[in-house]
């Protein structure tokens, strides 16, 4: 069994998108270092977990994309967590409406490699409350937005994190890898 990690791109002031959902300063801010990291990461996972909003972004892009990264992500098993969707239309995707912590734990425990939770701040925050996230991968871009959608939501209790690794990329993005210290 691998670990369940949450990957999120944020600005220095903690926003994962602008006020209207714009991603140009966060997940859309990429460079050669990000491309290298993303390709390596996609080869190292055996599944993904996403919420409805991230699913809608991904399903609009990845099924029609070409290349090794597209082949990797399209071929992976996926859990899509949503109380509002009625079905999911993506290869190897399963809709999860109930028993989310148990379903995600089971999915990760059956995985041979790591499982990634992408974006999905509300879902990730509930997983943090349920103490099932094993690692935080926070990609901090060199921007201050001042307003927008926060990466950490839903009135989380304080959690201490232990820094495992940090990399500064040429673009100014800093990739930070943390292990939570659940008490």
Task: Walk me through what this model shows.
This protein has 5 helices and 10 strands; from the N terminus they run E-E-H-E-H-H-E-E-H-E-H-E-E-E-E. With 183 residues, the chain is α/β, with parallel strands linked by helices. It has a single domain, classed as Dihydrofolate Reductase, subunit A. The strands form 2 sheets. An 8-stranded mixed β-sheet has the order 5-4-3-6-1-7-10-9. A two-stranded antiparallel ribbon has the order 2-8. A hairpin with a 5-residue loop joins strand 9 and strand 10. The mean pLDDT is 93.
| Low-pLDDT segments, ≥5 res | none
Shape: globular
Tally the helices: 5
Whole-number mean pLDDT: 93
Search tags:
183 residues, alpha/beta, Dihydrofolate Reductase, subunit A, eight-stranded mixed sheet, two-stranded antiparallel ribbon, 5 helices
Can you lay out the helices and strands and say which pair or pack?
Layout: E1 4-11, E2 15-17, H1 32-43, E3 45-51, H2 52-61, H3 68-75, E4 78-81, E5 93-96, H4 100-109, E6 114-118, H5 121-129, E7 135-141, E8 149-150, E9 160-168, E10 174-181
Short summary:
Helices cover 27% and strands 31% of the residues.
């Amino acid at each position: 069994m691998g670990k369940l990690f949450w990957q999120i791109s944020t600005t220095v002031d903690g926003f994962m998108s602008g006020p209207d959902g714009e991603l140009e300063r966060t997940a859309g801010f990429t460079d050669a270092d990000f491309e290298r990291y993303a390709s390596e990461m996609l080869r190292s996972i055996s599944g993904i977990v996403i919420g409805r909003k991230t699913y809608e972004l991904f399903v609009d892009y990845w099924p029609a994309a070409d290349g090794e990264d597209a082949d990797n992500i399209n071929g992976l098993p996926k859990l899509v967590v949503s109380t509002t969707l009625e079905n999911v239309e993506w290869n190897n995707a399963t809709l999860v409406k109930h028993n989310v912590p148990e379903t995600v734990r089971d999915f990760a425990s059956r995985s041979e490699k790591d499982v990634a939770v992408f974006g999905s701040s509300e879902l990730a925050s509930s997983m943090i409350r349920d103490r099932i996230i094993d690692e935080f991968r926070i990609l901090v871009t060199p921007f201050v937005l001042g307003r927008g959608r926060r990466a950490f939501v839903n009135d989380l209790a304080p959690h201490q994190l232990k820094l495992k690794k940090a990399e500064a990329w040429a673009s100014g993005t800093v990739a930070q890898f943390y292990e939570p210290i659940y008490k």
